[in-house]
Amino acid sequence: MVDPMSQDKPTSLWTLFFSFFKIGAFTFGGGYAMIPIIEKEAIEKQHWITDSDMLDIIAIAESTPGVLAVNTATFVGYKVRRFWGSLVATLGVVLPAFVVISILSYCIAQVRDNLWVAAAFEGIRAAVVVLILNAVFKLAKGCEKNWFGYTLIGVSFLLVALLNLPVIPVILGAAVLGILYVLFLLPRLRKAEGAHQEEKEGK
Predict the structure, then answer these.
(1) pTM to 2 decimals?
(2) Which of 46, 47, 64, 172 yields a CA-CA distance of 20 to 30 A from 77?
(3) Are 59 and 142 contacting, i.e. CB atoms less than 8 angstroms apart?
(4) What residues contact 89, with CB distance under 8 A and at least 6 apart?
(5) Whether pLDDT at 177 is above 60
């Protein structure tokens, strides 16, 4: 993929701001629900990043303090227009929620018990589940398919979903295991596979 900064006509800061403003304004359900919307805008429509970039960005955003959607917007913005890109993308994604929450703070007591509002959010919650599942399937397509990845996914799910372990130690542990796998185990496996292939061809 061509680096957005190296293009003859780089993306304008206004385009970057408006793209993330739309994401922040029309996405309900928090950071995970924003992932497929960010993918559609940043990958499919604007071609700012690739699927592989998105996986890396989410991994970094999950491993650093802050809200997933805000961290992701910051990283994408930096990739497109460096410092000013990260600034306007972050402002764009948080501004709609800031405005809406500021307005609702004055009338939250009346809205909280409103039957119509409660019914609407019941439907929104169900739709958010679909958005999150959609993001999971899309991200899974970009992961390397091997025994290490499948094992790590299964163990991580077991630790977090079933044993209720904190997410941060699981993420850090997965990062350490990934480093050990790539630096030490993977070269040995490839060397053994190459030796086996040579032996097979010699026969």
Answers:
(1) 0.62
(2) 172
(3) no
(4) 16, 17, 19, 20, 73, 74, 76, 77, 80
(5) yes
